[in-house]
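Good morning C.,

I know you're traveling, so I'll keep this short. The sequence:
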Amino acid sequence: MTTVVAPLHAPERTVMLGIGCTILAYGLFTCHDTVIKLLTASITVWQIMFFRSLTIVVASLAIGRRRLLERAVATPSKGPLLLRGVVILGAWLCYYNAARELQLAEVTTLYFATPVLVSLLAIPLLGESLRHGRWIPVVLGFVGVIVASGLVELRFAWPMALVLVAACFWAWATIQVRQIALRESTLVQMLYSNGFFVVVCGGVLLWLWQTPSWHQLWLLLAVGGIGGIAQFFMFEGLRRAPASVLAPFQYTSLLWAFVLGWLVWGDWPRPEVFAGAALILASGALAIWIQRRARRLPAALSNPG
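The tokens, ready to paste straight into the viewer:
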């Protein structure tokens, strides 16, 4: 299986395509989380993750077939791919255990430290740079999340520490996607990541299995389908654009959450939520503007006349 990998300094059109893939991915991830929220009332997270990952593995094999299996066996990135599976598993366990003890505003605010950490980790691990003011959209988006959450102060406790650990794991996993994407295809990444979850969650379900109803089964399959498409676009986005450029666009998932919360549960956002959403949108627009300006500046300097 061949794959076209964009260089670190990709053309502006490629970077913009990466941004579009990222926005779409996090919109789909929010839909995916909405279905999971509906399922968690009656089914364990282990079983949800098992069906989700199994659906993605089957779909990946249906698309890639024999070439995908051959590439998965031959890839020199087996170690990093499996390590990423362990990192994501750690993130899920920390996040869901902390969510039982914290308010949604607290969990959301602490979790969205992830884009900031991605931008910082991208400097030593990926050789990326926060020059040309790229750090400003990240900070602006994070301020928007705090405003939208209505969170004034945090009393530090172990659940908050778990969310921060989860945010660190997610940031590390995002960096790993970028590193692996520079030398491996999206389908191979999806096969390894979800295959790892099938094995681990399947082992746990030997003790926790419960037979789902037909309604639950359809929702479980929907989680896998939506999650698989979201993963594909997230990986493709990270193949086309630097992680530090894409980091602010993770905040768009909060906006999707406001819309779906209103449509599904009738939750109407507070005024401060709208103010925070405006800051988040501004951070995304500013990130695009900075990216375009950074691309044009070298050309302008090389052609002063």
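Safe travels,
E.
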